[in-house]
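Q: Hi! First time doing this. I have a protein sequence and I read that you can turn it into a structure. Is that right? Here it is:
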Amino acid sequence: MSTGQNKKLAQVIRDNHETLLKDWLETLANRLGKRDKNGETEIRRQAAQFLTLLVNVLDSPQGVSIDTAEWSEVRHLLSDLSRSRVQQGFSSIDTANFIFALKEPLFSYLRQSFGDDLNGLAEETSSTSVLFDQLGLYTIDVHQKAREQVILRQQQELLELSTPVVQLWQNVLALPLIGTLDSARTQVVMENLLQKIVDTGAVIAIIDITGVPTVDTLVAQHLMKTIAAARLMGADCIISGIRPQIAQTIVHLGVNLEDVITKATLADAFLVALKRTGSTITLGAKE
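A: Yes, that's right. Below is the predicted 3D structure, encoded as structure tokens:
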């Protein structure tokens, strides 16, 4: 886009600012198919700011690429808009429509401006379309990256929630595992368990695998790593939830659990933990 074309496009936007803004917002609302008074107010503010910034940058001498320093304010606005759309549940296409919905009304005003100058109109329309495609694709790129960050954060939160460490008794912790153990989850398991050992001074940790569907070589290795890490912190581990199928699998895999206490149920493991810590449970006499 040449400097002359920049000036022409900027002038068209400046001369038709209010009506262009109105037509743009109507086109955008029709594409999104959503009506939200609070949302409409915010979109109108963003759209008006975008037109102002666009005119300012088009008035300055630069090329069509939006990667230059002159476009930094426009990129910043579109980045904020794209990230907010992620939080609001909009798709990347809905987000890009913020830009693409401006094409139709803008091209209409360009046709009026050029009149019978078809060559000039064709050149201006082509360069403007390239510019807006860049801006639209930029919002998609930012939206996707922001969405990936949200997904990663949610996955991390789910990992932490799915590996709770609870204190069953003085000096006795329990770590109930549900679902498949992988490397990422094992790391969270170890971190949570070790931190709880430090916080409580526990000497026994019961790792309950009743909710683990299968135990393969990798899961067994993850369990042994967790047990080894706990021992380094001064706590012994008891594995509970050993079902017949899992027992057969462990034997078949040749996993060495000779120095690890294993029990069929969490209750059995808890009784062992009480004995190991010298604790007893006394039932009160019935009145």
